[in-house]
Amino acid sequence: MSSQPQTYIHSVPTKSFVRKQNDVLTNVEVSPEQNRYASILLVCSWAGIVVMLITFLIYMGGLFNPLVKPSDMPLYWGLSVHQYLAVTHAPSGWNWLSSVNHSDYLNLVGLAFLGIVSVLGYISLFIDYLRKKDLPYVIMVAVEILVIVSAASGVFHIA
Q: Is 145 left (phi over 0), alpha (psi -120 to 50) or beta?
C-alpha cells in the first residue's frame, strides 16, 4: 500500500444530472399569484437599484447641494449616531423626507423604495386572494402588510 494520502476529485455535474434538475423545474407548478408577486419583486427591486445608482451619481457629481459634502464624510466616521446628528444637524427618523432637496438625502429615496417593494407584492397577493375569497391567505397577507408598515412607520420604539 502506498503511504500517500488519497485525493478526491469532485467532478462537474454530468449532462444527465443537469437534465434531471431541469426536468424537476419544468414540472413545478407556480400559481399566477406567485408569478405576479415574483415579477413585482423583480421589477421593483431593479427599479430601486437604478434609482439608488442615479441618486448616488447626483450626490457624488455635486449636482445638488448636500447637507454633508462627500469630502467631509471622513471627519464624521468615528462619531456615534447621536454625535453625528448633533454636529451635522442632520434629520433623523422620517424627517429625512424634508431634506430630499439635498443630494445626500436624495440617495435615500431608492433605499426607501426598496423597503416597500415587499409590501407592494403583498398588496397584489391581498387583492388576488380577496378575489378568490381565500380567507386564510387574505388574513395572513393582511397581517404581513400591517407588521411591515407598522415597523417602518416607527410606531414601536425599542430603546
A: alpha
Note the pTM of the prediction, 2 decimals.
0.71
Q: What percent of the chain is helix, strand and coil (3-state, nearest 5)?
A: 70, 0, 30
Which candidate, 115, 3, 106, 11, places its Cα nearest to that of 63? 106
User: pLDDT of the chain along its 159 residues, tens only?
Assistant: 555 555 555 555 566 655 665 665 666 788 899 999 999 999 999 999 999 999 999 999 988 899 998 889 899 999 999 999 999 999 988 899 999 999 999 999 999 999 999 999 999 999 999 999 999 999 999 999 999 999 888 777 765
- Evaluated on CA atoms 73, 75, 78, 80, the torsion sign reads negative
Q: Where are the domains of the chain?
A: 38-153
Distance, in Å, from the CA atom of 54 to the CA atom of 60, rounded to the nearest integer, reads 10
CA distances from 59 to 46, 54, 71 (A): 20, 9, 11
Nearest-angstrom CA–CA distance, 54 and 107: 8
DSSP assignment of 111-136 = HHHHHHHHHHHHHHHHHHHHHTT-HH
